[in-house]
Design goal:
This protein has 14 helices and 17 strands. The chain is of the alpha/beta class. Helix 5 links the parallel strand 8 and strand 9. Bound molecules: zinc ion. Zinc ion binds next to loops.
Length: 428
């Protein structure tokens, strides 16, 4: 039983006051000058020009910077890093050669690299070995390591084979498709696969809609959506064919990953039904990962068409590979090029990276916007991302859950490393 004395004995939460030279509201697409953000513990307490700074508060001076809410990558795979060498960018081989424990360690590192670039939320959409994505989320939430808020899918559910084309003996005798994919062909198997992911810590469900010619029908996708909804989870579909897109939209899927199969007609339907587009628009500038000029032009044209049709857009990368000389976060920010080449104004790119990112991640009521009561996640850059979106490539300051993670361009993560699950072992 909790006594009054015990409550009184708790130390008051530390208070931090951040002086922001400019503070961007991405929803409105404008910036206010000379704002103060008061942070108490993990949350924002007050924001405004005339906020009284309490005695004893730690003051962080960002008066020569632009402060904005954290960024969202709506589609990544933090526990997967395929490489030009040795596997020639073929992730079949990554999966055979890198164990899940090694991939979990990579995921921690990639998460830190994402956070250092200002990504405070990442939707981690499968291909993460045997639930390394859940382990990453738990490690961050329990308080062992720093990292973005993770919305993870567990194992991708698909009809037989997933995205692989294994030999019969490797598939049937060695079950090689698992754990990259959960084979689920019948209604019973579909229900069971969704339940397995929920049991093992998924916060969103990811399916292969049409990775194989047999794929999923609209009714089968509806079954996934119904089962996921019992636990309050949404469903993202990997889509690579026009028919798959049609089935997914018809079924009322939450988000569609990859833009390759999304035509003008599909975009109009997505806009009408409010289906999120996680288009994963790979730029043509990543060393070791060539994109043909034709493919890049198609990607840019697809994104431009989606924007013109007012499809709900998220910033999503699918950046699950190593680019020499760049961190995972820096690779993700290279994707800004595609958005600029599609002619999308900076304010709308920023909206996709923030407001829309919070919505597709379903954090928008507690995490994302810099408003009183919300978790204190915020970043700062010199320059003005509303004028030049590339200003985001120079994140100098990052606060996550009220703790400073990066300051003056240097990571300062000491407060995030704890010797136990300080936020609670029950976090699963
Ligand atoms: Zn992906």
């Amino acid at each position: 039983m909790l006594t009054v004395t015990a409550v009184a004995a708790q130390a008051p939460a530390p208070v931090t006051a951040i002086r922001a030279g400019r503070l961007i509201d991405p929803e409105a697409g404008r910036a206010l000058t000379n704002q103060v953000i008061l942070v108490e513990g993990t949350r924002i307490k007050e924001v405004g020009a005339n906020v009284a700074i309490p005695a004893g508060a730690t003051i962080i001076d960002l008066s020569n910077m632009t402060v904005l809410p954290g960024l969202v990558d709506a589609h990544n795979h933090l526990a997967l890093t395929y490489k030009p060498d040795p596997e020639n960018n073929i992730y079949y081989f990554t999966y055979v050669m890198d164990s899940t424990p090694l991939r979990a360690i990579q995921a921690v590192s990639n998460g830190i690299q994402m956070l250092a670039s200002g990504f405070t939320i990442v939707r981690d959409m499968g291909n993460n070995g045997n639930y390394a994505d859940t382990a990453l989320r738990q490690g961050i939430e329990q308080g062992w390591v720093p990292g973005p808020t993770i919305v993870n899918s567990g194992i991708i559910i698909g009809s037989m084979g997933g995205q692989f084309y294994p030999t019969p003996e490797m598939a049937k005798q060695h079950n090689i498709v698992y754990p990259e994919y959960l084979d689920a062909d019948t209604p019973d198997e579909i229900v069971k696969a969704v339940r397995q992911n929920i049991l093992f810590g998924a916060k969103v469900i990811k399916i292969c809609v049409d990775c194989k010619p047999y794929g999923y029908t609209a009714d089968e996708i509806r079954l996934v959506i119904r089962e996921a909804a019992k636990a309050g989870l949404k469903v993202e579909g990997h889509v690579q064919t026009l028919n798959g897109a049609r089935n997914a939209i018809d079924a009322g899927i939450w988000s569609i990953a990859h833009g390759t199969a999304l035509t003008d007609e599909m975009h109009k339907l997505m806009a009408q039904k409010g289906v999120w587009r996680a288009g994963t628009e790979t730029p043509d500038t990543l060393a070791g990962h060539p994109v043909s000029p034709e493919a890049y032009q198609r990607t840019v044209a697809g994104l431009k068409n989606a924007y013109e049709n007012k499809v709900p857009l998220t910033f999503s990368t699918d950046a699950d590979y190593y680019v020499a000389g760049k961190t995972r976060g820096e690779v993700c920010l290279e994707f800004l090029k595609t958005w600029k080449d599609a002619g999308i104004p900076a304010a709308d790119i920023l909206r996709a990276m923030t407001i829309n990112g919070y919505k597709v991640s379903e954090t928008e009521k507690v995490r994302g916007p810099i408003k009183a009561g919300f978790f204190a996640d915020l970043i700062a850059v010199p320059g003005d991302p509303l004028q030049n979106i590339d200003a985001l490539k120079n994140v100098q300051f990052v606060m996550k859950d009220g703790q400073v993670f990066k300051k003056d361009g240097i990571m300062t993560p000491a407060a995030f490393f704890q010797g136990g699950p300080v936020n609670g072992w029950r976090i699963r």
